[in-house]
Specification:
The protein is an all-alpha fold. It has 10 helices and no strands.
């Protein structure tokens, strides 16, 4: 009888510990999935951002005549941005060049810069690829995508900090952190691209490859 009670006690302890461990793992899984969803939402925008930066640079080198002739309309046909977004990005860049803060410009002043948008490509003919890159990058600021990405990343950063403090040994945390770090670095690069065109191409491809690898692992883990 005594052996039976001991066996029952051990069994109860095992069940209790298993339940506790399972509950902890479930909480860690849910918390990491929420963080992943925010990082992934940010990355989807950044991937398009990076592609548009690359394409704007390429067009500025190889399609200079078309850009000078058609201005914002030509870039809008080739990039993942509308003509209005390209026009606003160009107007923002002009305002910045003139020392004006776009956020505090009056509607009249903004419209004046918009009216100059197409002609600005002729003015910047000698440095056209740089101008196209700045226009594309600033278009993502004006349309709110930069702020949207930053919000996703800020939320994810807080979630991951909480995750690392409460579940420091969670097995999938390293992959999630890698995806976050890659996405954040890619975002920084898109806002301030540097190097030659070939370096730009290599850098963007590197970020996308790393992100794709992390995403493939995490998609499998967090699939519905």
């Amino acid at each position: 009888m005594k052996k039976f009670y001991v066996f029952s006690l051990i069994t109860a302890l095992i069940v209790t510990l298993t339940a506790c461990g399972g509950g902890k793992n479930k909480k860690a899984f849910d918390a990491s999935k929420e963080a992943y969803q925010n990082v992934d939402a940010a990355y989807q925008i950044i991937a398009d951002f990076g592609s548009d930066i690359y394409e704007a640079w390429r067009l500025g080198i190889h399609d200079d005549d078309e850009i000078i002739d058609e201005g914002c309309s030509y870039l809008a046909k080739e990039l993942g941005l509308s003509k209005n977004e390209i026009t606003d990005g160009t107007a923002y860049t002009l305002a910045d060049l003139m020392g004006d803060n776009w956020e505090t410009c009056s509607d009249q002043k903004r419209n004046e810069y918009r009216d100059m948008a197409d002609f600005s490509f002729s003015l910047m003919e000698n440095d056209l690829f740089s101008w196209c890159v700045m226009v594309a990058s600033n278009a993502y600021k004006v349309n709110g995508k930069v702020a949207e990405v930053q919000e996703y990343l800020d939320i994810a950063k807080g979630q991951m900090k909480d995750l690392s403090e409460k579940y420091s040994d969670y097995e999938h945390y390293p992959a999630l952190k890698g995806y976050y770090t890659t996405t954040s670095s890619f975002f920084d690069f898109c806002q301030n691209p540097t190097g030659s065109f070939e370096q730009l191409k290599t850098t963007i491809e590197g970020y996308k490859t790393d992100a794709r690898d992390y995403k493939a692992d995490l998609d499998y883990i967090f699939e519905e």
